[in-house]
Amino acid sequence: MRATLFFLLLALSVLPTASVAVAESVRIKDIADVEGIRSNQLIGYGLVVGLNGSGDRLNNSVFTRETLISMLERLGVNIRDQETKLQTRDIAAVMVTAELPAFSHNGSHIDVTVSAAGDATDLSGGTLLVTPLMAADGDVYAVAQGQLVSSAFSAKGAAASVTRNIPTSAHIANGAIVEKEVPVSLGAQSVLHLSLRNPDLTTAERMANVINANLGDMASVEDPRTVALSLHGADVMGTLGRIEDLLIQPDTRATVVVDEASGTIVMGDNVRISTVAIAQGNLTIQVNETPVASQPGPFSNGQTAVLPRTSIKVDTGAGKRLGILPAGPSLRDLVGGLNALGVGPRDMISILQTIKAAGALQADLVVR
């Protein structure tokens, strides 16, 4: 039996507090978006042909067979009376997805992703036939067609097989042509909104102050996510272009993210802890059973018996040390102190959870 014990003791601060790190300046365009400028998701259903025997089984995938028959009928080939004889495995039904970027114009090209919808085993080398791509409103915004490209492969023999990546998903670069635009009229609006990707009131205030200092009094904070821009009579696109390149120092909440499955810990630079002492010790109890046989003497009436023999070894881990972290240590101090105790990532996760339970971790602890 093996168990790890962690003891947390609050102590008086005997070391000076750590200095606060200065955040790096970033462009506004890297942390905020203009509301109304967004992409749209497209989806379509189509057929991939030209597969090398790795397509759908038509007897199992009824929708593939019906799609093939309907397509051939539109091309002037009627096989309704012979549909039971269709045995090809070079065709697969697929779902086609794409993202229509903002300001896409008629005739521009976008990338598409093709994924098997039936029991096809490999889409490599196939060709996607003309497939309309629709948005949530049901209108067709693009049409996809082209040769599939996949980085996956699979090979198998009589007793073994190997597969790398996902052979039932492929990609077509510039595989769809935009047929319908999504209108965006920023120039007609007098008020625009900048939306922070990570809502924070301090960051929003800094953004508004920087914009007002460089471009005049036009920005105001509506909430921790939104900064409003009053653009009455201004060149909208030119103003947005200048705003995007302005530099600010974003602020974030102190957060520690823990992934227990992989033993990964990610901590922000604003993480602080109160004065705390951490001691780690290992208690190892090893029990060994080595039974022995007891033989009776010659010409006696005794019987052979098995006698138990148990040995117990206890290791208290006396080599572990007590570490004391000063009040308000930075991320570097915290990790350095825990590393000084000789603990690994998984032990560090337990220590951080215990520090949070003691109320000494001044940050949000997110465990996944």
UniProtKB/TrEMBL annotation:
Organism domain of life: Bacteria
Signal peptide (UniProt feature, chain positions): 1-23
Compartment(s) where it occurs, according to its Swiss-Prot or TrEMBL record: Bacterial flagellum basal body
Family matches, as PANTHER family: FLAGELLAR P-RING PERIPLASMIC PROTEIN FLGI, FLAGELLAR P-RING PROTEIN
Function as written in the Swiss-Prot or TrEMBL entry: Assembles around the rod to form the L-ring and probably protects the motor/basal body from shearing forces during rotation.
HAMAP family per the UniProt record, alphabetical: FlgI
Protein name according to UniProt: Flagellar P-ring protein
